[in-house]
C-alpha cells in the first residue's frame, strides 16, 4: 500500500483531498507550506493524522478560499484558521491565519510526505509551531499532548533539536 492509498483509507477517502488542495493552491498561485503533524511526518517516522495544517501566504488566502468553494469544498472561518472540508473524506484542512506563521512560507522546503510532493515548513519552523501549540493554554489537553508527542518524535529523529526547546518542554522530552 502506498502512502497516498494509506491516507485515503484512513480518511475514508472517496475524494483525494490532499491532491485537491494542492491543485487549488497551484491554480491560485498561492505560496504555502504545510505545518503541524503532517509536517512532522516529513522529518520523522510518520504517524496517522486526519489534520492537514497549511499556511497560505496572506495576500492569496481569499483566492484560495474562493477556489476551494468553487471546487465544492466546505469552508468554515474560525478565529485563527479557515477550515476546509470535502464530502467524501474525513481529512480536515486548516488554513492557518495566525500571523506568526507567515514567515514560515519564505523558508519552506519541497518534501515528499506520504507520497505527495509539497512545500513543508523547514524543520526549525515545524518545531517552533509545535512549541507555540503546546504552550497555548486555550488548546485542549489532548491536542497539547499530541504536540508534545510530535516534539518528542522530532527530537528522536534529530537529537540536536533538544537544545532549542524551552526548558519546561525539554524536561518533559527527557
Give the arrangement of secondary structure elements:
Elements: H1 3-10, H2 17-27, E1 32-35, H3 36-43, E2 51-56, H4 61-70, E3 74-77, E4 81-85, E5 92-96, H5 102-106, E6 109-113, E7 116-120, H6 123-135, H7 141-157, H8 167-173
Parallel strand pairs: 2-5
Antiparallel strand pairs: 1-2, 3-4, 4-5, 6-7
Helix pairs in contact: 3-6, 3-7, 6-7
Compact overview of the structure:
This protein has 174 residues and is of the alpha+beta class.
What can you see in these coordinates?
The chain has 174 residues and is α+β, with helices and mostly antiparallel strands. The protein has eight helices and seven strands. A hairpin with a 3-residue loop joins strand 3 and strand 4.
Strand content: 15-25%
What structural category do the secondary elements indicate?
alpha+beta
Low-confidence stretches: none
What is the second-level CATH architecture of the domain at 3-122? Answer: 2-Layer Sandwich
Shape: globular
Fourth CATH level, the homologous superfamily of the domain at 3-122 = Beta Polymerase, domain 2
CATH topology of the domain at 3-122: Beta Polymerase, domain 2
Give me the side-by-side strand order of the main sheet: 1-2-5-4-3
Alpha carbon gap, first and last residue: 35 Å
Q: Could you state the order of secondary-structure elements as H and E?
A: HHEHEHEEEHEEHHH
Helical proportion?
Answer: 40-55%
Look at the structure and give the CATH class of the domain at 3-122. Alpha Beta
Count of strand segments: 7
Q: What is the typical, i.e. mean, pLDDT? A: 93
Largest sheet: 5 strands, mixed
Number of helices, counting only DSSP H or I runs of 4 residues or more: 8
Radius of gyration: 16 Å
Amino acid at each position: 500500500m502506498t502512502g497516498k492509498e494509506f491516507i485515503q483509507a484512513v480518511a475514508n477517502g472517496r475524494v483525494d483531498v490532499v491532491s485537491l488542495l494542492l491543485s487549488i493552491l497551484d491554480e491560485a498561485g498561492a505560496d504555502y507550506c504545510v505545518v503541524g503533524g503532517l509536517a512532522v511526518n516529513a522529518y520523522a517516522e510518520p504517524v496517522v493524522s486526519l489534520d492537514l495544517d497549511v499556511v497560505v501566504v496572506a495576500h492569496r488566502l481569499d483566492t484560495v478560499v474562493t477556489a476551494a468553494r468553487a471546487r465544492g469544498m466546505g469552508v468554515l472561518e474560525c478565529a485563527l484558521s479557515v477550515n476546509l472540508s470535502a464530502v467524501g473524506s474525513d481529512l480536515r484542512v486548516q488554513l492557518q491565519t495566525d500571523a506568526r506563521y507567515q514567515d514560515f512560507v519564505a523558508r519552506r522546503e519541497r518534501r515528499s510526505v506520504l507520497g505527495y510532493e509539497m512545500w513543508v515548513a523547514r524543520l526549525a519552523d515545524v518545531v517552533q509551531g509545535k512549541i507555540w501549540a503546546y504552550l497555548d493554554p486555550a488548546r485542549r489537553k489532548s491536542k497539547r499532548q499530541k504536540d508534545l508527542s510530535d516534539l518528542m518524535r522530532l527530537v528522536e529523529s534529530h537529537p540536536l533539536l533538544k537544545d532549542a526547546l524551552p526548558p519546561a518542554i525539554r524536561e518533559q522530552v527527557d
